[in-house]
## 1
Amino acid sequence: MKNSILAAIVLSVAFAVTTAAQVNPAISAVNSPVSRSVAAKSETPPDAAKATRARVLNQTQKSPAPNSQRGNAQSLQAHAKANFKNRARLESLPAEIMTVDNTRVRSVTSSTAVPGEPKTAVNKNVAAPNANVNANVRTNATLAPIPSQIYRVGVGDVLDIQLNNNPSQESTLFTVLSGGMLEYPLAGSPLQVTGMTASEIAATLRTKIKLFEDPAVVVNVRDYASHTVTVSGFVAAPGNKTLRREAVPLYALLAESLALPDAARATVTRATGTISIDLNDPNLSATLVLPGDIIKVLGPAAVTEFFFVAGEVKLPGQKAYHSGLTLTQAILAAGGATNGAAGRVRVSRQGSDGRLVNEEFNLRKILDGKVADPLLQKDDRIELSTAK
């Protein structure tokens, strides 16, 4: 009977060893792909199955010789129980190993980049490289103020600061002091406001006022005093003029100054130089005037070219010449012909050799449209003959 029990125990041990040998290759096959995927970042964990098999074999080899049937039976029974426990552990190893290895693979994939390849996962803001440039261009174009449409506060300006959260009856008018400082009690220390627009000042005060949460501040310019120009010359209301914008067209300023009918030209003097403007040119009369400019309005340009009329005219003498002047226009400029004038007109013109060249015209035919009205030149001499 004891021999049968001993034989059964030996067969059990042999079966356990054989099963362990079959499980080890399967575990190795499962673990090999995962081990290769994490080889770059971590070392391959020790093969628990192989270590267990080595321990079983080692213990089997070192076990004492079967001197007695009882000792051998107890030893083999203990080894058999250990092998069965190891077998259960080995059967659960593949799932644990796969779970751990998958976690490691995901960690390595998310935190490791292949050398020489760009990190495309984090390039979320590079999808449209020109988007930021175009946005900046549009922003700059939107923020670029037009001088004739804005006003930047300066020293002496009076600001009307309305705080809707504050029902106080105190004055809301505050003057920009010397140095460009604004003293507003609810804002604490004085603020530097020179060069800021009313809306920019309001935005600054909203951040400075701590008495109210999200204060509603509205700022307007009540009195304009910092932007001035000087106007003189052919105007009915000369003197200093106040601008309500950073730049004002010249024609608007001349309308305020009441330019005289004889006003024909203007000069604008500023730090960069002097500009001459023909007021008869609509484009030039729209020239922008800046704070500090000095404007001088002038009459017609000085006459430097003349023609001369004599004979049967009401106002003989020297007359101002201009390009395009005709014979009939010259006679009208001299007051027109007298009642004793004949129909003959002589025009004398100095030639290139200094000698006068005379030419006669029939005034009656010119007035009837039968002959063209001749053009005159500077220094021409016109004489209307007397009727006989």
## 2
Amino acid sequence: MTTINKVKKVIPDEAIPEVGTKIVNRDGQDYLLVNDAMFTFYQRSMGEFTPFFLGMRDERKILGCRCTKCGIVRVPPLATRCPDCNFAPTELVEVGDVGKMLSTPPITYFASSLFQEQVPSGRGRIVLEGADTALSVNFYTTKGILVPGIVNRGTEMKVVFKDQRVGDITDIFCVPASELTSEQVARKGLLVSEIDWESAAEPDLPQQGPNDRGRFASALAGLRALAGEMNQCERAREDIADWKRNVHVKTAGGQMTMTIDNGDLTFEPGLVGDPDFVAVCADPMVLQEGLAYKGSLTQAMMERRLWISRNPEFTTIFKLERMARSLARSKKV
């Protein structure tokens, strides 16, 4: 949720490869890779939706259209004339930025490169105060990783505006109103920077049982062995190349630190250094099974057996799952 104040390009510089070729080895066979491109640029008009997008961008408000005859308010302003009233004219009106979720929404964890920066995210239809129709919009949580059950049908949601807006529907998103203070809910045009995204409360761990320490020791040994194998697997190393993270892992039986350092993965007992994020799982075997390709870390998060403190760090979880898959495939050769 961090806003970076810089000019954004349609195609970011880091996505543009240099002219050249390279040889990669897969399963003992050399393959020649050639950098190339296929693209097109175009402009599109927002047409009659222009006031809606400018309202969000310049004034931090949500506009709808109200029929001058029947009074129905549609959001976004889909029609300049009402289809239910023999095409009576409509007028632009401002609606509230708090509303109710119309139905229990889906959550997306894996997306194409075009939407990669938005996931994990939910997308639902919100009926805002003063509106008669629902607005389709993304939503997030301030409580760590977004999982099913946080937002359901009838959940009260608050619209949040990005600090840097361009006139697009992604200029806004929603969060559950229950996660905000009453002052934030009442504030018109609430900004991303006015919300605390870094202080998600960690879930409580069960009281340590008689077998938890032994289970933790076994899981730590297993994870260190897996990390050793991954560090010797070129394909697995590529999955975390140019990636650095220090992760504090807390379980019922003990605590450990997972470090990702540009292709190297290590596990150490205890909490070392300042974490980029925190992972909590009562059973450390959840993490071991995920990295052994015997389970899914994503599924564990969806089932609330694994929690991470920062939603954008799902990218790290995704990379770890790719490492597990790469190691498993290398053993089949």
## 3
Amino acid sequence: MSQSSQSQPFASRCARRGLARFRGNALTVTSAALVCIGGLAAGAGTSAAAAPVTVWAVGDGPNPYPGTRTKEVTDFLHEQEPFNDLLWLGDVYKAPTDKVYNELYDPTYGRFANQTYPTPGNHELKSDRPLEPYDHYWEHHRPAVVGHKIDGMRSNLYAADLGNGWRLLGLTSSFIPPDSAPVAPDPPHPTVQDVLGFLHHELATHTGTCYVAIMHRPRYSAGGRDEQNNDLQPIWQDLAGRVDLYVQGHEHEYFRLDPSKIPDYYPTTVSYDTNINKHLVRGAQSFVVGTGGITLDYLDQPGQIFDTNFPGLERYLVPPSNSDKFDLSYYGALRLSLTRGKASYEYVKLDGSVYDAGTTTCKPVAHKTAGR
């Protein structure tokens, strides 16, 4: 950026974090991405372009197992500071309690708590009281991200303005089974229908497609931990055509999908709208980043073989064998650089090298004005 000789020789930057407000039934969080640019030329009448918003994303980390790489990943993230936000994609192992959050999560990923947008994982459901330790931790550290209450239970649903016309959808794929005691009411919240209700309001009150959607389990996956998560199909259908970047965890590796290349009949045992994936935002990308410190899965792992021929699979980084599952060269995190109408993405390994990279474009998100 050029400046006249009369201008101040600096550019100042500031971040405003943690603000929240309700708009209808949807909780909106104002993110850290308010960028202030100073040092403009005196009397020039020009404005500076906003700096990119830098967001990191990773999940599947804190655990008590031998060989854990959680410290190495969080030390790597610490070296990347300053950045705007961290998307935590869920799973604290193995059945997290308040004590586990205090002893395993807080000393590692907790150092970024005031700039974290989280989503609960399936292991958070394995607590004696499913999701309760997750809710306790975030109610204390960043209350807005546990969402509004439904029948006295936290929804884990929220939205956040990231900056530069980008908006985050903090969703959940972690649903408490109806027969899980001691949880009330029945069925317990959140549910798929709760997510749909949140999305209907959010998407009806905003225009644009520069959305980042996070949840733990991916709708479509080349990994071997689950079959395709068919219960998420109604959510996927609501997001189609409105979301540019899908970011998830759950599988213990990194891979990227072009969801427009996935047939809607995949798997063939389920009947869907056969056109829904053709309605996606042009260039939309789906990431799985389960490399936050847990033992990694490997290609020929018995019972959960990684599908290298999965439709739409663009790039993957998976250890080839059991002997490589603790190899630090497979760990890393996803970096997003968000500018107005555009995102650059990179999977960065712990040594700083970039394994996967690309860009995508979208229409900036804006709140609908009255009469529109």
